[in-house]
Batch of 2 targets.
Target 1
Amino acid sequence: MTLSMVLLTLLLDHDHDVVMMPRRHPIIPRRRYAILILLVLSITSDRISYVIGHPALPIPNARPPKKLFAETNANAGGGDGALHTGAETSHTPPSQLESIVANAKSLTVNWGKKNMDLTNPTLRSRYLSALTAGLAVSLAMVPEAVSFSFVAGVSPLVGLWTTVVLGFFAALFGGRAGICSSASGACTVVVASLCASHGSGYLAGCATLAGLIQIIAGCAGMGKLIRIVPHPVMVGFVNGLSLVMLKAQLTHFQSAKGKYFSFRSQEGMATYGCALLTMILVRFGIPKLQEWVEAAKAIPPTLGGVVISAIIARFFKWPIKTLADVAGAETFQGGLSILPKIGLPESFWKPFVASPLKTLSIILPYATTMAAVGSIESLLTLQLLDGIIDDGKRGSTKREMIGQGIGNFASGLTGGIGGCALIGQSLINAQSGGGVSRLSGMSMAIFLALGIVSFAPLLGQIPVVALAGVMLLVCQSTFSWGPLRLFGKIPNLDAFIIVLVTFVTVHDDLAKAVVVGTVTSALGFAWKQSTSISATISHTKLIPPSGPILPNVKSYNVKGPLFFGTSQIFSRLFNVKDDPGDVVIDFTESRVFDHSALKAINNIADRYGAVGKRVYLRHLSNDCARLLAKVHTDGLPPYEVVESNRDDPVYGFAEKSEMYHDIPVHK
């Protein structure tokens, strides 16, 4: 009997227990509610299996086919089943109880045998890789979360629980598998001044509001705007982020006075040696072991390297800093007492209740900036993983923004500081085999939570420099070295944008870097296109709508885009004073893009009309003709649209341009 059927039987059989036990006994209603909750969880397991990375299966109908009930009754009833003929069963509807039981049973069977078929070696290997990758990333999250907590001015526990809550919900509802989210430096820098001026409680309110903004922006489809980010900006973002991560890791090789350890000192030798040992194990040792031993393939190199380095450092008693030394012993004391409280802190809630508008005015600028920065970094990480993980899938920008918003909202309700996707840890996850299932990001949060509560003392003994060694390798692999070799071969503007975005990312923050790079790239593109318009002069035969045939009319054949950047150059292409009385402007090799272009066409026609000459516009699309007529309001226009057909493009810059496809023009 399946779990759902057992729970349903216990739920429906409660009246018997009531007879056997006194009504004042408090266990009966509690047990009924508990059984009901478990029943709901069991029959919704198909949804759970979907979010951990396997394609969803169609949910069976609430009332399965009647033939199924006949077969089920025949199998369950032994000889009685022979009495149920096909004619009888085809007209006998199942009872409500039979429908519920059959539906719950079919859902349970689907969950166990199709979506989570652990007897399949491929799926079993896939889920195991996702779990081990999540374990490896959970270790790499600890130093980042702790260091970002210090930047924000809060307890390290706040940063760790932010990583747990945000990481779980962002992985569950995010745009693609493989992305790992945590408290981030980009978001922490934004809200550090808020914590300094109003306290850590306002950080939770800011994270909650930022999550709501991200959810609204995601539902509005604003994540698609990431498509306008050019490739040089992406390269500059990746390189700048690599330098930021490198700068953050170098602090682990410094003493309390801010100076780097000497190679000759015992502490320096142990620190550099542990980091170097971890890097060698991750890059060479563990992969070579996996070639020799099949079972070793289940262990990610990052996890194996960190664990082996920690054991060696502990065995030889190397004088190096551990996580407990950096974050404090109370952070890794463990136990249920360190679990976060659900709800906004009183230090924020009381001022908000007393003066909501004033409180919102304080946190709104920080929340808006945090939402923008977090969304940009998360969406760029999404694009980066789309190019790295070869699983035939493309991430959803809409779901990623909504997932990040839900994660930030939940982290704020648990007193967290908010964050976004981390490119370094996401790359570790992808390289460890966790990029094929959402289970990796969810298990990262679960393993980290278990480590904080149950294995905190053991987790606190991991050397910080061992994790720093892993991050140094991530910095090396993240940095885009290819464009450096192409300097001098790619356009100078693209090379400048790469350097500019890298500099602004390191010096300021990611959001400003992306905006500056995108605007610079757009202006450069507009300037380049503004010099690409020209016109050749020829003579053509023209049959005007009225009047005689003109066998030899001067024609300006315009080439290139006509928009705000080329409108002035377009006006200088014509010799109005010396041209004949009839002139053709041919747009066959040109495209009209905006209102500035329409205004330029109207102005040149007015110039010809002022001297008594007439212009014929050839191959101008119907929507352009309609808007051009609206622009010209002073009497009859000094032009005619000729030789326009349905093959001419409808450019779409006009509002509801599809309405103009049937405007009558002269053929």
Target 2
Amino acid sequence: SFVAGVIHPWRVSAFERLLWRACRGYLVASFVEMPEPMEDPATGESITWVIFLISYWGEQIGQKIRKISDCFHCHMYPYPESEASRADTMSGLHSQIQDLSVVSWAPWRGLGGHARTPLSLTRAGHPQVLEETEQYLAQVLDKVVLALPTWRVQVQKMKAIYLILNQCSFDVTEKCLIAEVWCPVRDLTQVQEALRQGSYKSGSSVECFVQRIPTSESPPTLIRTNKFTAGFQSIVDAYGVASYQEVNPAPYAIITFPFIFAIMFGDVGHGLLMFLFALWMVLYENSPSLRQASNEIWLTFFEGRYLILLMGAFSIYTGFIYNECFSKATVIFPSAWSVATMANHSSWSPAYLATHPSLTLDPNITGVFRGPYPFGIDPIWSLATNHLNFLNSFKMKMSVVLGIVHMGFGVLLGIFNHVHFQQRHRLVLELLPEMVFLLALFGYLVFLIFYKWVKFSAADSRVAPSILIHFIDMFLFTSNAENRPLYRGQVPVQTVLVVLALASVPVLLLGTPLYLCCRRHTRRTGHPAPAAVGEQEPLLEGQEAGNSVNATKEDMENGGHSPDAEHLDFAEVFMHQAIHTIEYCLGCVSNTASYLRLWALSLAHARES
């Protein structure tokens, strides 16, 4: 018997040696190089292959040869044993080669359903047929491109349907599917109508129906978004999803997040470039080339196009405040500082100007400083040698003020949660201590900043005390004789504020757990009031109470929970409150320090640009 095939030239020596050892010489092998190189179908490399023909004795030897050939990735071909069969095979191969050179086959007409037909041509007509074939294939691909979006939608719908069906369970008779889902109350009518239409169109003898299942579990949170709010909601969800019926902070983040970014990136030129880039994505958001891009980084930018748009707009606004356009000051209004007045008052001579490259403008001299700049920072500060010191003080204080206002606003949002869930005790035992702790320490810092701005002017600015030293002395319950007080009785006031802040911590830690424990003890010793039965109302039109979907108004408004429902595990409540207290107190300190990054990154952006 014979085995024929081709092998890579680099593997011939090892292949021949292994064949000889494994078959113990019961074979005759012949190796011949191809006259012309051929392309490797796997790698596309042009290789001069080696043709081998092996004659062997015994079927076991043949199996060994075939296994070794497979291990060496040889391409095997059938080799007839009789001379007549080999002659027939050779003539057939020659005929196929001749046919390939003079015959072209029309492609399958897949869209029209016509079978292919061989076209016998002369050598002169062969290039024309190939050109027509390429044109036809191009037309087919053009039609496929038009139909591809529809096919993709159909496939996605089928995958979604089968995914939902796989999550359903069979009933006892294994003839119906049962799905337990959470559904918004206002969408129940649409769900029921969709089930009815599905039953009608499928011709099912059993109509689909919806029935409410009583449960004590808290429903999941559903937040409806659109293409504008989806990016902001994703940022909020990255930090945590609000519980059912809690206040969603995402609408407020639509303003605060871009504005805080703009504080760090305040530049008219850079903000305009960002705004125009986002505006281009918004205007062409329906373009398939933008939506269906495979680059993950690009998709991240595209999904946040409205976020980038607002960040660019706010950066333009803060850029006007900083008076920076590509890190260069712009003169929109005349400067409020008069160099001519200072020169006339000081009688600067040419010799003085030659020896003093830096000149000082004294605002205490009448006419040198004529009032604040109409909007933003005066452009003359870009020429000053103390420009960085001035921006350091301004941006650091601004970051602290905005950060504490932002944190206070977040704490005040808890009022809506406590009132909605009828947990008014948390207003006194949680919200009040939180605000006392925040305002007594960091709210007082904001007060010191504004008080110093108002009290001290250019005339006495050199003797103004340091707010930072006062704030440190406040926690140490000491006073510094070298740092004069801002107002009378400052040390006693600061002592009282620190004591109030420290006293609010145990109230925040123990207030809610002790209140819940006392209320549970009162309920056990007293007589609980009988539970009121709410009136059942059908949620869907055309359905009676007791059938299909029914819920009380209380269930609809409170998600199936009574407002008095409390978790009475004291250890768990205390542990939760302890974690909340530690997180809040440490968060006030760390977040205030974190807001200083607005100042640092803003200066870095101005310096590096």
